[in-house]
Amino acid sequence: MRIEIWADVVCPWAYIGKRRVERGLAAWKGEHAEVVWRPFRIDPTAPAEAEPLDELLRDPSVDAELRACAPHLTTAQNRVRVAELAAAEGLGPRWGAAWRVSSQDAHRLIALALRAGGPRLQDAVVEGVLRAHFVAAEDIGAAGVLDRVAREAGFAEGGRLLREGAGTREVRESLLRGRAVGVRTSPTFVVGRRALAGAQDGAAVLEFAAEAAAAERGAAQVPGEVERLRQAESLLVSGDPLGALDLLGPLLEEHGTDRNVLRLAARCYARSAQLGRAERTLARLLDQEPGDAYAHRLMGSVLRRRGEGDRAAPHLRLASAMAPEYD
Predict the structure, then answer these.
(1) Is the CB of residue 202 less than 8 Å from the CB of residue 20?
(2) Which of 66, 150, 183, 300 is the most buried (most CB within 10 A)?
(3) Helices in 68-187 by DSSP H: which ranges?
(4) pLDDT in tens, 16-39
(5) pLDDT per position as a tens digit, 71-103
(6) φ and ψ of 35, to 5 deg
(7) CA terminus-to-terminus distance, the chain
(8) How far apart, in Å, are the Cα atoms of 302 and each of 61, 150, 268, 292?
């Protein structure tokens, strides 16, 4: 079974959760479990150039936001509590991040390690990044730090690949997929279509994974293209039409005549105010199937938004005649 851990490497619970899962795996007697790491961003606005975390924590507005994570504790008390939990998992002896910095490049390195060497190499890179950030108090946005982490993990070409910009698309798509399947916190453990949030006890994670994997085996297998289409639609419904279009990109390239793909693309274009593209996509749909009531309705809406009421009216009348619920 495959356990996907969606986590941000600047989240202390990701490291604590990693140790708990490792301890659970050491005692696990069930089927073989493969762990794969996926990206999550808890601080999407973090700068590319690191800034000292202590200075930031003295900002009253930041302190107020952090207190929301543990309302009964001050920020300082919560950091002590997390440090104690980390020590109980054998992390340290020193503990605590020193820098606020974007985790984008670290996530790229982790994704590239999976591509280059599979879960084992990826795990070694994840461990190195987490240790650099939380134990060595290093800047994991620095190219030199990530290059060293990659080399120590046995991924000598990692630094070069980062410099060349590799992994950007993979991370972007994974972040969108995570959002589409409902990942909202770090860490979240996903097996099939089921998710478990938080740095749970390792045994609990593995019991969840075994149940989810069994349920997945009993369910009808969905082709990857269909799963991608569903995830894109989920992003559209949640209000992210541009993200949905990103996920749809490969489907539009490979299955550009499929009506389901075209219909969803037209909806995304319309929702993101790309009205010209929406019109052209709908025209293709109507060329294929002139009696598509939904396509006529959406075409009428798009043309009306473009200020072309005369062209919109026939489409809206047809849609209403074929499907009265559209009236």
Answers:
(1) yes
(2) 150
(3) 75-88, 104-134, 143-152, 158-163, 168-180
(4) 999 999 999 988 888 888 999 999
(5) 676 767 778 888 888 999 999 889 999 999 999
(6) -105, 130
(7) 49
(8) 43, 50, 12, 15
Question: Which residues lie below 8 Å from residue 67, measured CB to CB, with a gap of 6+?
Answer: 73, 74, 75, 78
Across-strand partners of 279?
Answer: none
- The DSSP output letter for 324 is G
pLDDT above 60 (res 207) = yes
- Comparing C-alpha atoms, which of 247, 248, 242, 246 is closest to residue 263? 248
Tell me which residue has tokens 């097996």.
191
Q: For helices 168-180 and 104-134, what crossing angle results, to 10°?
A: 80
Q: Looking at the chain, how many residues does it have?
A: 327
Residue type, 318: L
pLDDT digits (tens, 9 = 90+) for 148-158: 999 999 999 99
Q: For residue 314, give both structure tokens.
A: 């026939």
